[in-house]
Amino acid sequence: MPAPSPVARCVDASRVFGAGPAAVVAVHGTTCSITDRARVAVIGDSGSGKSTLLHLLAGLERPTTGTVDWPALDETERTFGIGVIFQSPSLVGPLTVAENTALAAQLAGASDPDDRAGDALDLLGLSDLADRLPEEISGGQAQRVAAARVLAQRPHLILADEPTGQLDHDTGQHLMDVLVQVADRTGAALLVSTHDPAVAQRLVEHWHIRAGRLTLSNPEADR
């Protein structure tokens, strides 16, 4: 039986910002793939290229050279089948927490976006914030609402960029519990960028990135 197609794949993909002497290579020629139900940690310090790699895999950045594709996803699945938890604030200011959480599922045409949003907020212990606006909650709460929005979307691929960066240890571990639980339940692939070893150890595959250069390793070798 042939191996399943990767959910997302980079082949010698690079991303350069700027031109000439001022050019910055954020990601050097990188080849990697995310398989069905994968659990991947991308480990690196701030400025190492983690976010750029994640944006390439999400289709939010075009590679300067090489290719990025999504062999297992058709065009519709490409649009709504990839969910991104951004490191920076991403909530829509005029919408309540509940409305923000339901937004992606609603745009994807789900028949029950409000129910999905309620379930996701409940999983993350955020139900009491449902009627608040983003300006009325903390940065850490906003990060968890952004995660709830992706969970309500129920994508085939979850890409989370430092999702625990603004959270204390226990809250961060709970968020990881929920991300892994939902990915297991829905069959989604999960990739998390992090600089935190406690987050990385929750995932099976470890990719290391330094100065835009990615290396793949066996987590057993990291211990």
Automatic annotation (TrEMBL):
Pfam families, from UniProt? ABC_tran
**UniProt signal peptide:** none
Q: Do the record's keywords include Nucleotide-binding? A: yes
Q: Name one GO molecular function term.
A: ATP binding
Per UniProt, residues of the ABC transporter domain are 8-223
On whether Transit peptide is a keyword of this UniProt record, the answer is no
Which keywords label this protein? Answer: ATP-binding, Nucleotide-binding
User: What is the official name of this protein in its record?
Assistant: ATP-binding cassette domain-containing protein
What organism does the record attribute this protein to? Answer: Microlunatus ginsengisoli
